[in-house]
Amino acid sequence: MMIALYFIQRYLNKLSDFNFREKWTNHFIKYAKRYFLGATIYYIVGTSLISRILLIGNDSVFFTLITFFLVTIFYGVFFIRDLVRFLAKNNSRLLNLSMGQQTETFNKDNVVG
Predict the structure, then answer these.
(1) Following CA atoms 55, 76, 1, 50 in sequence, which dihedral angle do they give, to the nearest 10 degrees?
(2) How far is CA 61 from CA 57, 64, 96, 105, in A?
(3) For residue 35, what are the contacts with CB-CB under 8 A and spacing of at least 6?
(4) What is the per-residue DSSP string for 27-65?
(5) Which residues touch 96 (CB under 8 Å, ≥6 apart)?
(6) Which of 29, 38, 58, 96 could form a disulfide with 101 if both were Cys (CB 3.0 to 4.6 A apart)?
(7) Using CA atoms, how far apart are residues 50 and 97, in angstroms rounded to an integer?
(8) 3-state DSSP call for residue 88?
(9) How many angstroms separate the CA atoms of 41 and 24, rounded?
(10) Closest-CA residue to 8 (of 51, 38, 49)
């Protein structure tokens, strides 16, 4: 998930201000419930797979619960941190654009090409 957020962020950084506003409001914010549901399912599946891989050949119930608990905490902290960072960065850019600030200072009107 973290690598997917990285590539999506790279794509959004390359967009101009107008294209970013259109893409963020019409695509990401409009379907936010679907994305959060998908991220939740991904988190559950990822946590289960990591726990299963760590517990290959183990029959102890106590060790299984401790491992699952620790994987849930560590994976959840990194997952939530990256997701909040992604949303905060893009929402702050959208807020700055809606207040009239532009990130592009280069005027492209006189460029011949």
Answers:
(1) 0
(2) 12, 5, 52, 60
(3) 28
(4) IIITTHHHHHHHHHHHHHHHHHHHHHHHTTT---HHHHH
(5) 103
(6) 96
(7) 40
(8) helix
(9) 22
(10) 38
Note the pLDDT tens digit of each residue in 20-60. Answer: 999 999 988 889 899 889 888 988 998 888 888 888 888 88
End-to-end CA distance of the chain: 39
3-state helix, strand, coil in the chain (%, to 5): 75, 0, 25
Strands (E), the chain: none
* Two tokens, residue 31: 């379907």
In tens, the pLDDT along 66-95 reads: 888 988 898 889 888 998 999 999 999 888
- pTM of the entire predicted model: 0.71
CB 68 within 8 A of CB 51: yes
